[in-house]
Amino acid sequence: xxLFQPPPITRYDLNFNLFGIPVRVHxxxxxxxxxxxxxxxxxxxxxxxxxxxxxxxxLHEMGHALxxxxxxxSSEVILYYGGGLTVPCAEAWGTTWANVSLSxxxxxxxxxxxxxxxxxxxxIVLVFIKxxxxxxxxxxxxxxxxxxxxxxxxSNVLLNSLLMSLVWVNLFWGIIxxxxxxxxxxxxxxxxxxxxxxPYTGQRKAYQLSMVSGALVAVAGLLLLRSLYLAMIxxxxxxxxYQALKR
Length: 247
Known about the structure:
Blueprint: E1 14-18, E2 21-25, H1 27-36, H2 43-70, E3 75-80, E4 83-88, E5 91-93, E6 96-98, H3 104-131, E7 135-141, E8 145-151, H4 157-177, H5 185-197, H6 202-223, H7 228-246
Parallel strand pairs: 2-3
Antiparallel strand pairs: 1-2, 3-4, 5-6, 7-8
């Protein structure tokens, strides 16, 4: 699946290190988040959304990378047109290099770490709002999905917009990534659980669940969120799982 493969290196990549972990930002990544932020109103709101999406995706991938490093594996974080990837690096093995696999339980923890890093940031923001005298409430998204609504004490509209955007993006992105659709984090978790329970038919069951879940999320994205992008992505992932089942 080319969408979820590391993109080629270009001369326009932004490269830096964070906590000793290499980070590479592909130039088309910036175009992607500009398109995501295109529905916002006003230049400052536009800038806030660009910053929030960049920081949220980076935080998500750093969660994977830090837990992976805790298990003795080094990795590289790549932000690109498909969102983000955490790619394990080859390890020195005598006089050569080798890819060393983690155990299935370790892979599950690595997959959970991305979304839970975002959820942790949401918790910090909510506690900050509460301690500063602001308001923290809940609204029902689509009539059934509870999402927090916050309001800072005072009238700092831009800061409130920044914090509210951080809460919503990290919650939404984390939940979407935990859907049991391959190759997203939730799909990888489901795959490892199936293979632990049944090494013989677990892979087939993981693809079946991925196909059905991807189709349901695609329909929900189109009908509830009015998001053609979400419908296309999950429809594509469901089709990929269907093709894998046929093979």
